[in-house]
Amino acid sequence: MTATERGRTTISDRAVARIVAKAAQETAGTGGLGRSVLGVGMPGRRAARTDVHVNGEVVTAKVALSVAYPMPVRDVARQVRESVRDRVEAMTGLTVRQVDVDVAELERSGGRTVS
């Protein structure tokens, strides 16, 4: 039996997006985003937002998250990129071409957003 006769494994964008979100969340100094309805702030936080595209064996990802104030934003973003790339490649075998990090909020301890 040859390799082509055994079948093929496909990993969905959604599955990769979950890996991306978990890797970003586990990076020190990061957090989710504030919740709002029609522009009015709501209590609680939601997970980091992800947008992932899998094209064959290549992944591109965008992550929107908050960074704990006063953590160095560039350093945290670099760590998120590295963590996402390492985790996705290790768990899926796919190649991560690009990881864009959008720091949408700075968060003080206690969950308050810095304006």
Question: Would you write up a description of this structure?
Answer:
Pfam families: Asp23. InterPro entries: Asp23. This is Asp23/Gls24 family envelope stress response protein. Belongs to the asp23 family. It contains 3 helices and 7 strands. It has one domain: Cation efflux protein, cytoplasmic domain (Alpha-Beta Plaits, 2-Layer Sandwich). It is elongated. The termini are far apart. α2 packs across α3. The mean pLDDT is 87. With 115 residues, the chain is of the alpha+beta class. Strands 1, 4, 5, 6 and 7 form a 5-stranded mixed beta sheet that branches. Strands 2-3 form a two-stranded antiparallel sheet.
Brief description of this entry?
With 115 residues, the protein is α+β, with helices and mostly antiparallel strands.
Number of helices: 3
Q: Count structural domains.
A: 1
Radius of gyration: 17 Å
Choose one word for the global shape: elongated
Helix content: 25-40%
Q: Which structural class should the secondary elements be placed in?
A: alpha+beta
Fold-level CATH name: Alpha-Beta Plaits
The CATH homologous superfamily corresponds to Cation efflux protein, cytoplasmic domain
In total, the number of strands is: 7
Strand portion: 35-45%
* Main β sheet profile: 5 strands, mixed
Query: What is the CATH domain class?
Result: Alpha Beta
| String of helices and strands | HHEEEEEHEE
Shape-level CATH architecture: 2-Layer Sandwich
| Chain-averaged pLDDT | 87
Parts with pLDDT < 50 across at least 5 consecutive residues: none
